[in-house]
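Task: complex structure prediction.
Instruction: return structure tokens for all chains below.
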Amino acid sequence: RKEVEQDPGPFNVPEGATVAFNCTYSNSASQSFFWYRQDCRKEPKLLMSVYSSGNEDGRFTAQLNRASQYISLLIRDSKLSDSATYLCVVNTGTDKLIFGTGTRLQVFP
Amino acid sequence: GAGVSQSPRYKVAKRGQDVALRCDPISGHVSLFWYQQALGQGPEFLTYFQNEAQLDKSGLPSDRFFAERPEGSVSTLKIQRTQQEDSAVYLCASSLELGFTNEKLFFGSGTQLSVL
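Output:
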């Protein structure tokens, strides 16, 4: 079993839709969690950190469920520019950041 | 420099050839990571440095892969006797420090290696 698992998608949604991605992790000692965004043929860039209490940044909301060992990303009012791959990243507690395979989102007009 | 710089941007190698990939992290960044990203996959961890110390090399696929960061700044990933399965994008990332904090990783644009 992979340490960090994501549904690869693709998720095809119309503009204005709300879409949610989940990510599960296997190491219960994992300490910190992130969502990165990767555009086609580009490097990953930090989208947001995920805090225990949940956090929101504009149209984006991230949540952590330690009991079930998953994190989620909710995108409201999707824009065409949100089309990208969303990577779940977990610090496993040994200062090693492990990436999921990514979930591809395609927003259409 | 302003960001993480990797060179070359593209590298084509004949099978069996040795290659060296360079990463120049953001000045002052303590941590440096190498990742391998195959097409359609997420980045796979290869190795991690804090300053010049290689703290984790558990992700290196074989002993043909070697990484160094002798002065705690520039790092080189060397692949000996390249094989077709080594074809991937090699990403370097750096961060100011790493611990149980929400530190941001800054990635370079990567080196796309194609082994023929």
